[in-house]
Amino acid sequence: MAITIRTARKEDCPAMMALIKELAVFEKEPDAVTVSMSEFEKSGFGDNPVWWAFVAVDDLKVIGMSLFYIRYSTWKGRRLYLEDLIIHEPYRGRGVGKMLLDRTIAHAKEQGYSGMMWQVLDWNTPAIKFYESYQATLDGEWINVSLNF
């Protein structure tokens, strides 16, 4: 297995979108992905990108991704928000997630961010155990809030 981690490119967007849809199915929300490819590409590779990503590649095929953006905390300053860490199902359990998360952590440190944050579903035991192996703090106290337009 010759998997490499690199910065995502615009031409990776179709493979990244396939991973996002795979995650939606895994999270029991198969119809929840409504972003268009045009919006996805523009928001990551347009004039004012709002997200960045690393991809895991195996023989030129994107098999995983870490997509993130900058979040500002009035208490902590700039923090990296990990929106998605997705590994194509056949590659799970092979260390690809660790490679991507380690690269994302290194990037946050290189940028001088005060830390990272993300969410995990309370029933996703393998992911919770994986994050706990990093001594990540899991906080069940906060309630997610969203407003759709």
Automatic annotation (TrEMBL):
<dbReference type="InterPro" id="IPR016181">
    <property type="entry name" value="Acyl_CoA_acyltransferase"/>
</dbReference>
<protein>
    <recommendedName>
        <fullName>N-acetyltransferase domain-containing protein</fullName>
    </recommendedName>
</protein>
<dbReference type="InterPro" id="IPR000182">
    <property type="entry name" value="GNAT_dom"/>
</dbReference>
<keyword id="KW-0808">Transferase</keyword>
<dbReference type="GO" id="GO:0008080">
    <property type="term" value="F:N-acetyltransferase activity"/>
</dbReference>
<feature type="domain" description="N-acetyltransferase">
    <location>
        <begin position="3"/>
        <end position="149"/>
    </location>
</feature>
<comment type="similarity">
    <text>Belongs to the acetyltransferase family.</text>
</comment>
<dbReference type="InterPro" id="IPR051016">
    <property type="entry name" value="Diverse_Substrate_AcTransf"/>
</dbReference>
<dbReference type="Pfam" id="PF00583">
    <property type="entry name" value="Acetyltransf_1"/>
</dbReference>
<keyword id="KW-0012">Acyltransferase</keyword>
